[in-house]
UniProtKB/TrEMBL annotation:
Protein name: F-box domain-containing protein
Matching SUPFAM superfamilies: F-box domain, Kelch motif
Cross-referenced Pfam families: F-box, Kelch_FKB95
UniProt-listed Gene3D superfamilies: Kelch-type beta propeller
Domain F-box, residue spans: 23-62
Sorted UniProt keywords: Kelch repeat, Repeat
């Protein structure tokens, strides 16, 4: 097994210090990797070798490979002081509650239009702007295993109010508003292996973007509704050609709210009149109702995220409703669901993402 020391000790010292006394390191890893994620912070405190192991890419890969990884939800919010804040939820706990992530990068706290994305075991805050600040290209990275923030390579183009998605282990920052008005139809891709961004352009990308999803290995972005026709406009990225094309009009017609993909099926939360969940049926090419959500449980505007067949609808104050669409029973059209208590404040939810370790 490969050693996980950061390099400050000599190789001979590392080899003489097993992870668990009396066990080969591969057997020790077999045992330690089965410790639930909620105890990983405690594992880091045992020794330097354990800390380096828990914070390593090898640990992350091992847990994923052996299906030991656990998914937590991260929510980017804005509080009553108009400051950015971030919360975390472990959905596996018997008493589930949102917990704040402390010490966000100070320069990002007042910005709006910030991108929020997950890649591997890291969260990324990208771009943004302020009342007296043009769009920025700054990117911050939060290593969830180390509980630390750091700067990474800046965007090729300063952006705010843009789409962020991950495809083929790369982050895509698409469209939005920026200081470089000469090239508004652009997108950037980030490779974490090289810590480098590459810029691209396509005339089919428009600056005004409202939502985005990844489905069937393609990126879909929903643009602003036309004031003249009230039609929803969307484009789709084809990785094989590296170009953006107009998306299927029938599919796009029902995409008028936050969306999430579960087992290849697109679900949309329609918040225009109450709160109801609808799904896109590919075979019949039509939108079908899944059910209505109780107005007593949801606090729009909401965002959505999925873990397995469970959809988490997260509203104001992080009020959270969980729906299992794999077993979506309903009574009188109202879906059966469970709830997670909201926090004491009325923070607005900007975006939600899942991260598995």
């Amino acid at each position: 097994m490969e050693h996980f020391d950061s390099g400050s000790d000599s190789v001979s010292q590392v080899e003489l210090t097993p992870l668990i006394c009396g066990l080969p390191d591969d057997i020790a890893l077999f045992c330690l990797a089965r410790v639930p994620r909620k105890y990983h912070m405690l594992l880091r405190c045992v020794s330097k070798r354990w800390r380096d192991l828990v914070c390593s890419e090898e640990w992350h890969s091992y847990r994923q490979k052996h299906k030991l990884d656990e998914t937590w939800i991260y929510a980017l919010c804005r509080d009553k002081f108009e400051q950015v804040c971030c919360y975390m939820l472990d959905p596996n706990l018997s008493r589930r509650c949102w917990k704040p992530i402390q010490e966000l990068p100070p320069r990002s706290l007042k910005r709006k239009g910030i991108g929020f994305e997950v890649l591997g075991k890291k969260l990324y805050l990208l771009g943004g702007c302020g009342w007296s600040e043009d769009a920025t290209n700054e990117v911050y990275c939060y290593d969830t295993s180390r509980n630390t923030w750091s700067d990474v390579a800046p965007l090729s183009t300063a952006r705010c109010y843009f789409a962020c998605e991950v495809l083929d282990e790369k982050i895509y920052a698409i469209g939005g508003l920026g200081s470089n008005s000469s090239n508004p139809n652009s997108w950037d891709t980030y490779d974490p292996c090289t810590d480098n961004w590459k810029s691209h352009s396509d005339p089919n990308i428009v600056p005004e973007i409202e939502d985005s999803i990844v489905m069937d290995g393609k990126i879909y972005i929903r643009c602003g509704t036309s004031a003249v026709t009230s039609h929803v406009y969307a484009v789709v990225y084809e990785p094989s050609s590296g170009t953006w094309q107009h998306a299927d009009a029938d599919m796009v017609s029902g995409w008028r709210g936050p969306a999430v993909v579960v087992d290849g099926t697109l679900y949309v939360l329609d918040q225009s009149s109450g709160t109801r969940l609808i799904m896109w049926q590919k075979e019949t090419r039509e939108w079908l109702p899944v059910g209505r959500l109780s107005t007593l449980r949801t606090r729009p505007p909401c965002q959505m995220v999925a873990i397995g067949t469970n959809i988490f609808v997260v509203g104001k104050g992080l009020s959270t409703v969980v729906i299992d669409v794999g077993n979506a029973g309903n009574m009188g059209g109202v879906m059966m669901s469970s709830t997670i208590s909201k926090i004491t404040s009325d923070d607005d939810v900007i975006s939600c993402k899942c991260l598995a370790i």
